C-alpha cells in the first residue's frame, strides 16, 4: 500500500456526507455533502480545504451512485480524484454492527451480508449505509473498504449493563439488548480527554456527554465503555432535539390503547416530535437559551427537563465508575452551550464537580479544561471529530494488513 489518503463516507437514506483526509498528518483535503438524493432539488456542496472556497451544484441527483460519481468529479477537479494511487481506502460509517462487530472491519461479501442481517434492528440506517458501501465498491472494486460501526465502542459493556431485564428467551430471539450509538465519538473524545489530562487512556475513568441534536452519555473505564445511555435504538437515554429519551415503556401501550395511535404514529411522536421540540417547539439550543433569557416559561421548562435528565446520567455513571477523573462535554450543544455545561454540574461540589465561569465562557476549537484549578474531577470540553476517528481506524486497519481488496461476489 502506498497511498495515505482515506475517503470517509457517511451515507444516509437521502444524503451522503464525505471527507477526504491525508493520514500522513491527519489533515483534511476536502469535505462535502450531497442532500435530497432522489428528489428534483438535490444539492451538492463541496469544499476543497486548500482554498476553502465551496462549490455548489443543484438539480436532480437520482441515486447514491449518481451522488458518488458527482463527488468523484468534484474531487477530480481539485486534483484529488478517487482513481488516484494516493487513495488507500474508503471508510464507511455503519450505524449498527450488532453484538459481533467489535472492531472496524474490512468489507467483504460476508460482512455485507451480516450488515444486511442487522436491518431489522436498524431499519432507518443500515440500508442507507449498505447502499453507500455497494456504490463505493462498484466505483473502486480494487480498493479496501472498511466499515466503522457506531456500536463497536460499546461492545465492551458488561452483560449487566447491556441487557434489559426482560424475558431472556424473547430478548435473544429478537436480538433485543442495549447496543449504544455515537461510538466513534465516545471513543475519540474519551481518548482525547486522557491526552488532555496528560495520561494514558487505560489510566482514566471518564463520563462522556455527547450533546448534539442526538445526545448520549457514556461511562468509560480505562478506555473501555462500561455503560451508555442509548439502547436498542438511539431513542433511549437523554432528552434530545426531537427524541424523548427515557420514558416508561407503558406510555406506548397507553397511547395505543387509550390514545388510539398506531405504532408508526407513536414511533414518529417519540423520535421526531418529542424531546426539546416537543417540549417547547424549538430544538436548537441557541434559540432555547434566547427564549429563556427573555423569560419564556415554556423554553425554561424544556431546558430544565433537559438538564435534569443530564444530571441524572452524570450521577448514575459516577456510581457505575466509582472513581471519575473527568466529565467531558462534546458535540454541537456540549461544545458551544456554556449554560448547559454550567447547569449540568451545578451544586455537585460534594462529588468534586464544578466549572470555572470564566473558563467555561471561553469559546474555541481546542480541547480545554473548564474546571477550577486543582479540581478533583476535571470538567472538559473536547470537540468531537467522528470523520477523523473513522479515517484513523480505517487507515490503521489497512496499513497493518498491508492489504489487498477481497474478492467480490455480487
Ligand atoms: P450536532 O448534532 O452535534 O451537529 O449539534 C447540533 C446542535 O448543536 C444544534 O441543534 C444546536 O442545538 C446546538 N448548537 C450548535 N451551535 C450552538 C451554539 N453556539 N450554542 C448552543 N447550541 C448550539
From TrEMBL:
Pfam families: Acetate_kinase (PF00871). Mg(2+). Can also accept Mn(2+). GO terms for molecular function: acetate kinase activity. Substrate binds at residue 93. This is Acetate kinase. CDD domains: ASKHA_NBD_AcK_PK. Mg(2+) binds at residues 10, 386. Its main location: cytoplasm. The gene is ackA. It catalyses: acetate + ATP = acetyl phosphate + ADP.
